[in-house]
Design brief:
Structural class: alpha/beta
Number of helices: 15
Number of strands: 22
Distance between the termini: 80 Å
Radius of gyration: 28 Å
Length: about 525
């Protein structure tokens, strides 16, 4: 070897070389030629965020579009005490106005029969009990008109759901129109025109998939819609009618065009989307759209379709949406719903009239009788009147103000209440299958001397999650009465941490948010 060997114990030489290398690297970094790519350094930078909110920041209206309507299991379930206990508890934290159950015309409700000559017999006994019970709790019906009574159906095509609803068109369209007329006239006679004119009437449910077996699907659905809308308006022109109630954000633009071209009444449009729907089904692309943005992108698609239509001011109602249409325990039962829902609200604000979360309670039997309290059900309440983390998400987000403060953050919603108090939601989002890491947020509150302190509410695995305790219990399928009581207690939010606001200077709040957590900061006097 002809190169001069450098002895490893020559410390002064090594120190000099190291110093020169560090100087050169510093030059490259400052000049933008070189960037640190070490994963540890990147993660440190990515988990620290400073959010500054000035009392004089601009605001705009922020209606609580996410908590006005909730879906529910089929209508007959509303006759159960457990259904009403859950409804009452959700009503207390959201003050929601409407509930949308399926299958008001299902045979188990008993509305339709025929005598030996095929003449219609109507029975409104259960209809009255269903709607009386909702109205007594201060909730109005969002009436989904379906499914088909068996004796009226052209074919006995059953949906795979446990309650086997009939999905076919009627064999006699006149009998369908007579049912709609008799049904709505009865509602007027019982509840009055003024009351029923505040309800929403939606024609069918997801006719573009297996909930409607007319062929071709779209054309036969339009016949169903047209006949229903004309009949309902003939009873009372003030009644609100809409559709197409499609899955996967489908048909809205064509539906509006059909109504306009054929002079068919339409007062609002409805459609559905779930965060795990595929891009192929919703957009006709092969993209991999994450749950974080799927709903918001779908909302933007429909918003643009309505704004570019002949009826640009039609109200847009998402009459079903959620983070999953499957039963995924690590999604709908977990604290993941905090960051997911808050981020969805942040993105969808301004592009929809209402969004109806599917749904408010696991008193729900589409897959049969519930076998365990935590199975990835869609409701805010698990079986046994146990609040899930999602219940607490709605409880916290209900506290947000009605004016939105515009800030540049994908991890925060800043709002103001009518008294000037600022309310800020903060979250740490990761996809449900990711473990994630803590997120450091430095919240700087400038101005506003009217308030003395802030409340800091926390929702994470150790605060407000009954799922955590259930797992520690060994995941009992049928919790004892004592276990249910403990689960209910674990499902309640813990009292807030209280921090005094700084007098005469900015208040700085340093927060550590665990993965899949939602914090809410509220100024109070």
């Amino acid at each position: 070897m002809n190169k001069k060997m450098i002895p490893l114990n020559n410390k002064s030489f090594l120190a000099k070389k190291t110093k020169n290398i560090l100087k050169f690297m510093s030059f490259l970094i400052l000049s933008g030629t070189f960037s640190i790519t070490n994963s540890f350094a990147k993660s440190d930078i990515s988990t620290l965020e400073t959010i500054t909110i000035n009392d004089k920041d601009k605001t705009r209206a922020f209606p609580h579009f996410w908590e006005q309507i909730f879906g529910s299991g089929r209508a007959i379930l509303s006759l159960r005490e457990s259904y009403h206990k859950d409804l009452k508890k959700v009503k207390e934290i959201t003050d929601f106005k409407y509930v949308r159950p399926h299958a008001i015309f299902h045979d188990e409700v008993g509305i339709y029969d025929e005598d030996s000559n095929g003449k219609a017999i109507y029975n409104f006994s259960y209809i009255d009990q269903i709607y009386d019970g909702l109205l007594e709790q201060g909730v109005k019906p969002f009436v989904e008109l379906g499914f088909m009574p068996r004796k009226m159906a052209s074919k006995l095509i059953e949906h795979p759901f446990n309650y086997k609803q009939i999905t076919s068109p009627p064999k006699d369209w006149k009998k369908w129109e007579d049912l709609i007329s008799a049904f709505t006239k009865h509602l007027v006679s019982r509840y009055g025109e003024k009351e029923v004119s505040k309800w929403y009437f939606e024609v069918w449910n997801e006719p573009n998939i297996d909930f409607w077996s007319g062929e071709p699907k779209e054309d036969t659905y339009y016949e169903l819609y047209d006949r229903t809308a004309k009949t309902l308006k003939a009873v009372n022109s003030k009644f609100l009618i809409g559709g197409p109630a499609t899955a996967q954000a489908a048909w809205v633009d064509r539906f509006i065009k059909h109504c306009v071209d054929n002079k068919i009444p339409v007062d609002f449009v409805t459609t559905h989307v779930y965060a795990n729907d595929s891009a192929k089904d919703v957009f006709g692309t092969n993209e991999n759209i994450p749950r974080k943005t799927m709903v918001a992108r779908s909302v933007k698609k429909v918003y643009d379709q309505v704004k570019n239509s002949a009826k640009p001011n039609l109200p847009i109602i998402w009459s079903e949406y959620n983070a999953s249409y499957k039963n995924e325990q690590n999604v709908t039962d977990s604290t993941y719903m905090g960051p997911w829902l808050a981020n969805n609200i942040r993105q969808c604000d301004g592009m929809t009239t209402f969004m109806s979360y599917w749904d408010f309670s696991d008193v729900f039997e589409e897959q049969g009788v519930v076998k365990t309290p935590f199975y990835g059900g869609f409701g805010l309440m698990a079986v046994g009147n146990i609040p899930k983390a999602s219940y607490n998400v709605f409880k916290l987000l209900h506290k947000l103000g009605t004016q939105r403060i515009l800030i540049d953050s994908e991890s925060a919603l800043a709002t103001k209440k009518t008294d000037g108090a600022r309310v800020i939601a903060l979250w740490n989002y990761f996809e449900p299958e990711e473990i994630g890491k803590d997120k450091q947020i430095k919240l700087v509150l400038k101005g506003n001397k009217k308030f003395s302190h802030i409340n800091i509410y926390k929702l994470d695995k150790n605060h407000g999650s009954a799922l955590t305790l259930w797992e520690k219990m060994g995941k009992p399928s049928f919790p004892s009465i004592d276990q249910q009581k403990k689960l209910r207690n674990a499902g309640e939010l813990t009292p807030p941490q209280i921090k005094d606001l700084s007098k005469g200077k900015d208040t700085v709040v340093n927060l550590t948010l665990p993965p899949h957590s939602l914090f809410l900061i509220e100024e109070v006097k």
